[in-house]
Amino acid sequence: MYIHSAIGFAIMAIFWLAPAAAPLTPIGMKLVGIFLGMVYLWSTVSCLWPSVLGLFLIGLSGFAGQGFAGMKAVVLTGFGNDTVVMMLFIMVLFGAMDEVGCTQYIARWFLTRKIITGRPFAFLAVFYLGCYVLSTLVSPITSLLLLWPVSLKIMKTLGVERTDKIWPIFFVGMFFISAIGMPFFPFLSAQLVVLSAFDAMTKGTMPVPYLPYMALNFIMSMLLIVTFLGAVKFIFRPDISKLKAIDAERIAEQEKLPPMNIQQKIMMAVLPTFILMLLAPSFLPKSLAIVKLLGSLGTIGVAMFWIAILCFIRIGGKPIINFKEVAYRQLSWDVFFLVAAAVYAANAISHESTGVNAFVIQLLNPILGDASEMVFVAILFTAAIVLTNFANNAAMAIILMPIILAFCGQLGLPPIPIAMGVTQLVFLAMLTPAACPHASMMFGRKDIYEVKDIMKYGFPMVTIGLLYFIFIGYPLAKFLFGA
């Protein structure tokens, strides 16, 4: 930890002390060093204290003003950002669903569908859909923590051993599909950091509509799930005879849960209603009063409305959401501070006073300046998926945003499809423990995975995912975003 921290400090110090290379300005040099140092520390050490350190150094740099006025401006702007406030309320709202136990019922529902009985590929498809749904609603970590013990029990019951070929294929696929589900909701988790940074860099002139963004993730995810199942059947070809003994009724008996209580039922109804309220302005006539109201509330307003309602309504003398208790267990301070620091830093380095955008164009113009549209997309997407296996995925996507914006302007390309393709693609990274927190979890489960298994079955799927995003995802994003 101390070695990585020293490297992070050194990155910041070098840029802080080195003379500015035109067209970078002295403040631009400092901000680039601070941001790159934060990215390194986020990827190797922690998210919380490097974010605080980064905001402190930005305040010290003079970017927002001199002395205490500059420091105060950084803190107020960083933590007063609407994205940071929205993150707080949404983490509590979605975390409450896990807190009251809804996720256990969702997992059990997928595992007890009668269609899986005696049908190995139906079982794999339904199980992986369950991984995907849980990952979208909460996180890949929650999906894995819930389904690892259940799936291990199922494998033991079916007599599947670690030496059986289907074992590593099944579990690597479980991780891969949990990972692709993570960026589904644009107002949750690490993807919110990237979208907020993109919004900051474009000064709010290119808002990303939720519905096309979610449609892009869903279509690409389903395509990748089908491809993985096809690879299992026709390429990997493990012996799946033991899975033919799968029985939905037996799983239902083994994984018994009491009937859902009123609190759980209300939360199961609130979440889809919340999502519908956010998406309604995307597909309902703008002239409707309710659409105008929802549009004026925005994500923050809708989240605050439901938090207030759920804290007010009491069942058995207790509120549906006890804000303090849910926030204590579900509010990720790492992500909260990461959002504050990343969004502010992204806005700062893209400011014209830093010279960063001009420097990026000057540096990369020999490589990308004359590239065709598809070559440009292929280079960016490949760089994104390779680099994010060695760095924090959200931070790596943010690093690429100035490049996307600079060269899209120069090449006359629409930036949103490329930016959103990168945003979703980076979450496929799974080939090193540094790729993301849940990748660290995967590599840590020596009782389930071996590194060679992850590479043998994960590497082909990551490569296929990259090719899909270049040749299918990008044209699809152009269509969905109307570019």
UniProtKB/TrEMBL annotation:
Gene Ontology molecular function: any one: transmembrane transporter activity
UniProt keywords, alphabetically: Membrane, Transmembrane, Transmembrane helix, Transport
Top-level taxon of the source organism: Bacteria
Citrate transporter-like domain boundaries: 41-420
Gene Ontology annotations for the cellular component aspect, listed alphabetically: plasma membrane
Principal subcellular localization: membrane
Name of the protein: Citrate transporter-like domain-containing protein
Organism: Desulfitobacterium hafniense (strain Y51)
